[in-house]
Design a protein that fits this description.
The protein has 481 residues and is mostly beta strands. The protein has 2 helices and 40 strands.
Length: 481
Amino acid sequence: MFIVILILFSSSCISYTYQDVSIVRLTDFGYVFAPLNDSMGPFLTLTEKTVLLCHLQCNQRIACRVFDFDQDTSECRLWSDDLTTGMLSLVLPSKPRSTVGAIQVTSNTYASIHNQPCNKCVNSRYEICDPISLTCKCPSMTFWNGNLCVPQRYSYQSCSTIDSCRPDLQFECKDTGCNSIYQCLNQTNVGITVAGFCNATAGGGVQGLSGPWGVYVTSDNTLYVTDYDTGRVQAYPSLSRSGITIMTISGIVEDVFVDTIGYAYMTAYTLGSVFVSPTNTTLPISKTYLCTSSSIALPYGIAVDRYGNIYISDYYCHVVMKWTPNATTGIVVAGQLGIAGISNNFLSGPKFIFLDEINSALYVTDCTNNRIQKFLLGVSTTGITVAGINGYGSGLSQLKIPAGICVSLKDQSIYVGDQGNHRVMKWKVNATQGSIIAGSTGVTGSTSLLLDTPGDVALDPTETFLYVADYGNHRVQRFRL
């Protein structure tokens, strides 16, 4: 069916980089391209004199994966689909000189650019610079399948990653009937169980959870969960409800953070230690209730920056401290050692934290004060209340025993696991009140709309989904934002 191979170099091609070059295979005459979704058409239709010029038009556009060209009418149609989201349609005898060209891509096409610094994809027709991570990523309407960027799927097609489906058509990748068969289905704003049993019962093994509390999502959508009640820390590959135990700690484990090279840092609350996997080591910090700069009492939230500096909240000592690599003495960046207070230079029982490296900001769940505090690192140790401005309560301007926190790197909106109100709140920048994202104020339940004692929260890398540790229901729920 495919009979001709064309290799096209653009006028700005840099030799041997192959990043603005495309290779295309042409079919026999008598074929046109047809997407699996009948409502989708070509993103551009042109008139060209030859199939080579039609290929040139496709090569110049990063969205183009397939084109068809009719030599009798000179019609050149460019498509963002490929042969995984469309098919060849035989149109003899109506179009006897129509042919389809499919751009050929392999893992070698992406080997030198994917997840690399943006200067690697400046002239690329295959990837673009992501403004948040400043690395080369797949362009819109495509996703990374582990080897290359491919078009996102249509309704009822199988999917294997969280971003496999066309969001512009309101599709998302779902486990159909909680049986680990994933398809692109219509989007909903209800919770989907991504870890733990779907019937909200406690359990163990690879699928069960007893008390999920801390959550973290990596750049490849691996979900990490601390099981508060059992001391386990589980890792779930993207779209898998079968967890891998990366560590079991003989005590309460609160939070987990995974750095850019894959090391997981876990706070062992009752042991007063921070464990690191896969090295199976602990940080060289002594445990004591004296609240000194060289010790820690009850470590709770944790974050690590690109330089290896570790930020740990100490629930007992009411501070967040920064520990440089291999340091035995920490630096207080929020709160006052051993002193609880309600003014903005104090904390009281800090829990989870979120580090925004781009804006040099640290967000702290100031639990006993029922608020979220923001600290500008290197500028001031006086916090700014950014959520829960009216203290303890159930109103939209209040929080009740807040736990988890994460912050959008796109617009700095704050998401809070409002534990005592059984809801997740979103606070926009400079807002005087929040809005309910998940759960219902004061109502517990195990349906897809309700939560029971939510703990930590985390955004996926695209900030399309929010993950919530639904402690009382022994599960982690995913909500579309």
